[in-house]
Amino acid sequence: MRKLGWVLILLLLAGCSTTRENITSDGGYSYYGIDFRPYAEQGFLITTEGPQKDYNSVGLIEVNLQPEVKKISFGEHNRIQNEDEPEFTSTRVYNGNQVEYYAVEILDIQKAIDGIYELASEWGANAIFNLDINSTFSGDLVTKETITVSGLAVVLD
């Protein structure tokens, strides 16, 4: 009887096993970078490193960039899906027996870097050390990304 139980368990586990799906791709490259040159041209240093020179602390800065989210029609949903370089992505949400469509802004890390630069400059800083960039996803009905950029704003001596 015990052997029969083990056989049944093994059959159940074998029936639940995952199958590997063949995925093909044409290959290619994907590039992404964050350009600090416009800030350097203004005499402003941004680095992921800690301070290497004498400095005066200005403060810790954190910028959270969140997307614009708006409810849209089915027609707008189709238009967004067919754009070559969309500023928004669209998603559908099943809410009970109704389908709702939403446009969610596609975030750009460079915009978050611009935000931390602008705030640090307003505070009189000329550098940001320990730059940290994080991306998180959250949302109840519509998944939203938040980009968080933080660092230590300083005045270099």
Q: N- to C-terminal separation?
A: 82 Å
Strand order of the largest sheet: 1-6-7-2
CATH architecture descriptor text of the largest domain:
2-Layer Sandwich
Any idea how many domains? 2
Helix content: 25-40%
Helix count, DSSP H or I runs of 4 or more residues = 4
Overall pLDDT: 81
CATH H-level superfamily title of the largest domain? Hypothetical protein apc22750. Chain B
Uncertain stretches: 4-20
**Proportion of beta-strand residues:** 35-45%
CATH fold topology of the largest domain: Translation Initiation Factor IF3
Shape: elongated
The level 1 CATH classification of the largest domain is Alpha Beta
Based on secondary structure, the structural category is alpha+beta
- Please describe the biggest sheet, giving its number of strands, its sense, and whether it closes into a barrel: 4 strands, mixed
| SSE topology string | HHEEEHEEHEE
Radius of gyration equals: 24 Å
